[in-house]
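quick q for whoever's on today - can somebody do inverse folding on this one?? i tried earlier but teh output was garbage lol. tokens:
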């Protein structure tokens, strides 16, 4: 897999990253640690070198599973984690980082990210200058190698960049969720900030696995995804009907088509979750897909069957 630069840092990351929200188990159903570990290791064997997690995923459980899974090849992977908005005062950032270092069984976190802006989910307001000051300190001390932000607006990203180097921006981004294109993406491209797209398969919608009458099990957070609102879900299936022939023409799955579309954009990589070794290998294979200009134009048109009817709210869930 051809590695890419992470922002202006000296880190090299795989264009397909493995996301491990599901490894935390909380807000998911049917997750098994042994199976998750197998998926992580299979992802690495298939060429994925970069893994994303967060302290809030299962209250550190995802970090611990990931750290154990990659312990025997830690020097060959890039580990990214995130600090939650309830820990954004300077002392809290330092403490959270040390906790994540322990969970991940590592001496350094390659990419440390602010998960959501301060004030999100009822958390206390903290100035971005204070938070960035702590992150810069951790970087100077060699505890982290690069700084990123997630779920920021374009304006918030620009403000954070005034206090230190931001090398990555992590937004929800897929064929069916494209708010970032009209907000932070131009700034990222102009300033060499790598976009790490999460939910690039729209939490499984773009794999085509959800039937029109699908009902989520109790405890599955995806039931709150706004793309599953009936009127949106109907448009999703209309778009999927047009995407299937395009995937067949390229001899790939729908999920691989969705991932290939993301990484075709300048400076964009895709964070793909996986429950099994097979899913991880399938995701990795998307890095080898080459889409033609005609394919990309058709994908853009099909995706807008969904996105043209969404409002301007960038939050993908009704939490």
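ok took a stab at it. sequence:
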């Amino acid at each position: 897999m051809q590695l890419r630069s992470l922002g202006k840092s000296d880190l090299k990351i795989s264009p397909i990253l493995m996301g491990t929200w599901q490894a935390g188990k909380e807000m998911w159903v049917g997750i098994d640690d042994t199976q998750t570990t197998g998926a992580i290791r299979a992802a690495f064997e298939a060429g994925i070198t970069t893994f994303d997690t967060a302290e809030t995923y299962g209250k550190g459980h995802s970090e611990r599973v990931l750290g154990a899974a990659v312990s025997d090849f830690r020097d060959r992977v890039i580990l990214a984690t995130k600090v939650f908005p309830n820990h954004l005062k300077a002392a809290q950032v330092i403490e959270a980082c040390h906790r994540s270092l322990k969970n991940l069984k590592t001496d350094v976190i390659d990419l440390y990210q602010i998960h959501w802006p301060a004030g999100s989910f009822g958390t206390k307001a903290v100035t971005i200058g204070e938070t960035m000051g702590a992150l810069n300190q951790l970087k100077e001390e060699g505890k982290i190698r690069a700084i990123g932000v997630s779920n920021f607006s374009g304006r918030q990203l620009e403000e954070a960049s005034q206090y230190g180097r931001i090398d990555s921006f992590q937004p929800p981004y897929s064929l069916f969720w494209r708010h970032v294109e009209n907000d932070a993406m131009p700034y990222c491209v102009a300033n060499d900030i790598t976009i790490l797209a999460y939910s690039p398969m729209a939490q499984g919608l773009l794999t085509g696995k959800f039937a029109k009458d699908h009902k989520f099990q109790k405890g599955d957070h995806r039931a709150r995804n706004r793309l599953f609102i009936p009127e949106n879900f109907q448009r999703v299936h209309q778009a999927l009907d047009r995407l299937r022939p395009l995937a067949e023409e390229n001899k790939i799955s729908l999920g691989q088509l969705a991932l290939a579309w993301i990484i075709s954009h300048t400076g964009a990589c895709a964070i793909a979750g996986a429950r099994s070794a097979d899913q991880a290998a399938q995701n990795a294979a998307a890095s080898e897909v080459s889409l033609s200009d005609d394919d990309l134009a058709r994908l853009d048109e099909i995706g807008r069957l969904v996105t043209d009817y969404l409002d301007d709210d960038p939050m993908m869930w009704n939490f």
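fwiw The chain has a mean pLDDT of 96. also The longest helix spans residues 230-249. so keep that in mind when u check it
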